[in-house]
Structure formats: C-alpha cells, structure tokens
C-alpha cells in the first residue's frame, strides 16, 4: 500500500506539474491538423489557378506543405515538455540525408518530374521523341512518364531520362512543313514535273495556301534529278497528306509520261589483248582502247 500510494502521489504531482503542458500539447495538435489541412487545400486551389502548374504538381506541393506544418507542430509539442528540440532537428536532418542518399535515383526522378510539369516540354496526348524513346504521352507522374508507341507498345520512361536530353515535340506547333522529294529521269521535262506537283498540292485541301507551296530541283543524283515539293499543313494532317501526295504524284507522273528511274550506272568495257596478239605485236595500250558505254540498271 505504501508503494502504491507513493506511485499515485508521483502521478498526481506529474499531472499537476504538466497539466498545462498536456493541455497546450493537445490544443497544438488539434490546431496543427486544422491549419495543415487548411494550408493544403488553400495551396492546392491557389496553384490550380495558375496555368503553368499541373494537377499532379499542385497536389504534391500542397502535401509537402501539410506535412511540413505537422512536423513543426510535433517539434513544438515536444518542446512543451522540455525536450531539447535541437537534437531532434539534427536527427531529422541526418535521417533526411541518409534517405536522400539511399533514394538518390528516385529523388532525381522526382526533381525531373517537377521540372517537366512546370516547364511542360510535352503534354498528355502529344507525340514526342526523346532519348531514343518515341511515342504519345499518356500521363506524366512525379517518378515516371507513361507513353504509347505507334505500334501500340507501353513504355514507362523515368523522368530523369526525359529531362536530361533534347525533346522533339511533333505535336506542339500548329503547322508543320514537309519536303516531298521525287526523282525523275534526266531526259524528262523538269518544268512539267514541277507543274504536276504544284497542281496536286493546289487540289489538296489540307495543304495550306500561306506559306505557298513551292517546287525546286534539290539534287542531281547518279540516276535521277530530285524534284522537291515543299508545302505546309496543319500538324494533325501532316502524315496523311504526305502519304496521299506521294501516291498521287506517282500516278500523275505515270499519266504524264514522267519516269521515276531505277538506279543506273555506266559500264565501260576495255578490250584486253590475248597472248597470241601480244606475240604478234598486235596488242594496243589499254589506255587507247575505246568502247561504247553500256548503261545498266543497278543489280543487273
């Protein structure tokens, strides 16, 4: 009974001594949760009003603010009971450093994800190429970006791989240029070929009139003269217009007698003196021998 009475006396003394501290700690905890929740909602709504902030990034930053307030409240509560908070803060810093070193790659992806969400080099639904990865963006997260390739494959690319390299966005600009190069024979009429290509561009409603389509000779190849049709289209129509004009140009060239030649080369045959001719002194120097050039298609 004496030990029980002593224990009860100590408990009573502790309750009396720390009653205000306990009450203050309870009030701080309740107020901390209320303030943290209000701060989270307020920051999220404020960031969502800004056009440069993504929904994922706004949620992440608002969560960071919430937990930062709760950690501050926890340290303050411990200080109410006379705990040395300096050592706790130092311990938290050491733990944060250790976690940061252990999750270096993950934190790098998070930092890259934040930069991707803020600067927006690509958005959901755009077709991009980065770091030998090509596909349509499905979603952008804090750790990785989901993509879908043209052949329907699923790609999960780490954000650091997309941030630390050049990104080519094929969908961002409203208009896109295309150079359609067709090779014609050296004996064909170049001006006629250019007129045919310009007429095809004029008939296609997807080809923009400003900038105006243009044609020019782009190269003199081994077997053909390269004639280029340069035109602009709306970005969504770029691929379909290219396919349609390529097919239409082949059909129009056939109808107008304009050839698209196979690769060719000139082969010169030089006669070689036989042993009997050499003995009779009838051989001629190889350099003076002449033969008619024979044109053959490559591979024949």
UniProtKB/TrEMBL annotation:
Q: Where is the Mechanosensitive ion channel transmembrane helices 2/3 domain?
A: 63-104
| Alphabetized GO MF terms | mechanosensitive monoatomic ion channel activity
Q: What does this protein do?
A: Mechanosensitive channel that participates in the regulation of osmotic pressure changes within the cell, opening in response to stretch forces in the membrane lipid bilayer, without the need for other proteins. Contributes to normal resistance to hypoosmotic shock. Forms an ion channel of 1.0 nanosiemens conductance with a slight preference for anions.
Has keyword Transport? yes
User: Disordered: where is this region?
Assistant: 277-300
Q: Which family does it belong to?
A: Belongs to the MscS (TC 1.A.23) family.
List the protein's name.
Small-conductance mechanosensitive channel
Summary of subunit composition and partner proteins = Homoheptamer.
Record-annotated Mechanosensitive ion channel MscS domain positions: 106-172
Q: Transmembrane ranges? A: 18-39, 64-83, 89-119
What is one GO cellular-component annotation here?
Answer: plasma membrane
Q: Keywords for this entry?
A: Cell inner membrane, Cell membrane, Ion channel, Ion transport, Membrane, Transmembrane, Transmembrane helix, Transport
The record's annotation in PANTHER family points to: SMALL-CONDUCTANCE MECHANOSENSITIVE CHANNEL
Q: Which residues form the Mechanosensitive ion channel MscS C-terminal domain?
A: 180-260
* Location relative to the cell: Cell inner membrane; Cell membrane
Q: InterPro entries attached here?
A: LSM_dom_sf, MS_channel_1st, MS_channel_C, MscS_archaea/bacteria_type, MscS_beta-dom_sf, MscS_channel_2nd, MscS_channel_C_sf, MscS_channel_TM-2
Q: Which domain of life is it from?
A: Bacteria
